[in-house]
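name: query_chain
kind: protein
chains: 1
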Amino acid sequence: MRPAAKITLLAAGPALGISIARFAYGLLLPAMKDEFGWSYSEAGWINTSNAVGYILGALTASIAVRRLGAAVTYGAGAAVTVLALFCLGHSDDFIVLNMLRLVSGVSGAWIFVAGGVIATAVASEQPESSAVLIGIFYAGAGFGIVLSGALVPPWLDLFGQAAWREAWLLLGALGFLLAAMGCLAAKAAADGRPMSVGGGAYRIARDRWILGGYAAFGAGSMGYMTFVVSYLASRAVGHAQISAFWIVIGLSSMSAPWLWSRLLSRQRHARAFAVLVSVCGIGSVIPLFSTNVPAVMISAAVFGSAFFAVVAATTDFVRRNVEPDGRATAVGAFTVAFGVGQMVGPFAVGAVADSHSSLIAGLAASSLLIALGATLSLPQRDRRS
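structure:
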């Protein structure tokens, strides 16, 4: 199997662990919030629990990769994620829902870190196109957003808001197919053997600026992805437009490897990261000024085009600056930084929205956090040629 084919199938992992298991909650949030009477803070806490699990998963993923191999870690994360998706449709208890979101966060991080390690190894077989190949892996998350956007809003429009439980079951079935695709690729990449990665030393302090920027970006972008659909729904934007909005985010995310390949391959230090985070920030502020259809779609296209490219930029930064035996630890550290931001973001943005009785204030806070992420990363420098 060619490297591009391996990574394309492997990209089903981010589609499952990130888009289906995490971001699809934003599509179901209005229905769940209305049924349970949650405040915005409580609604945000559900995604904060997922982010806490993501941090725990990131902290343990590199250990699992070293002991089990990347392919087995990837497969275990995929299996648990699918199981959690099915269970989400069977509970009304706030604590149980939080625990399921926490578990899916752990397993999603295992998929993401192990998949990133495998993708980096496979991409190294073709150094001249490694940035594009790594970008394809993360673009898989865009594919997952397209699938959930095409499925969830039409389902709720057809069967009503109370059908959010069945929507989780449908997402679980979709996740099962994605898990099968990704595990096939992980096995092929490992050539039938566990792909182990050494636990070489990695000094976090050297990358403090980009790590700090990544955490701030995680907080702001997760706040946007959690509440933007609720905001649009509160402005009487219909299910069809919301579905189109979500699909545009996904499609534009899938274009990122080609759209930003020259930027990723030519820019050094954290310049590509800062540019891409800034693009996301621009996309995030557009709905604050207008929620007419053209403005909403432009926001989705701009934000989506750079969202997962930011993640690809951090992975490419690791490839340039960290020795192979330390990459699992480095990818884990970046995942933790992103997870910390994503843990803080939904609850903080929800709290701002509650305190001002307005989602506009919460989304404005998200945009400011994204801008902070770009600013913090600017002093970061490469240390390897």
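note: The radius of gyration is 19 Å.
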